[in-house]
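Revision sheet: structure tokens.
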Amino acid sequence: MLPIADGPMADVRDMYMAHTAMRREFTLLPGLVSDVTPGDVRRAEVVGAHAELMCRVLHLHHEGEDHVLWPKLLDRGGEETAAIVPAMEEQHHAIEKAHARVTALLPGWRATGRGGAELAEVLDRLLAVLLEHMRMEEKEILPLAEKYVTAAEWGQLGEHGLAKTPKKELPLVFGVMMYEGDPEVIETVLAEAPGPVRLLVPVLGRRLYARHARRVHGTATPPRVGT
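Predicted:
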């Protein structure tokens, strides 16, 4: 096992916040797609753009875990991580397979408003494997991350997503995450950001998500899964 660098260990509360946001949005997506009248291209574009955004968030989230988290846990956790990390990797493969099918169907549905039943079915399959993965990750992986991953290393997960998310999307993505987020966790996530960002992002993100949610969900306050 490789030694762990000195310093504070990972604060994993931001992962719970991200999971809550993904649970909410991916739980609602199959119904949103099913409710679009066949041929309603305008509504399909609104829902499809939201689905594409959430699929991108999910992909980057898991890509960061693949590149940053799994190797460190395997290097340091010995028998504690030897079985569970490969199981997590297998779940990522299953999620990515369903994710790829969703992203393959989305362009055609957005352009025509037709084929929604198949897309909703694939989104249901994606949701099932994603919910199981997040449940197991919270139960098995996050306690190990607190034990074997430093705060600085944990921060690399967020940095990965930030670097690969288009800058114009970042405030909205923060808003998606903050909707059910603990204010203390949000403050911690933004602690290292420049002062103007710390001040503006919570306000701007909430406003952007409220506007986005009204357009997508028909309400600024879609059903919460964290309460």
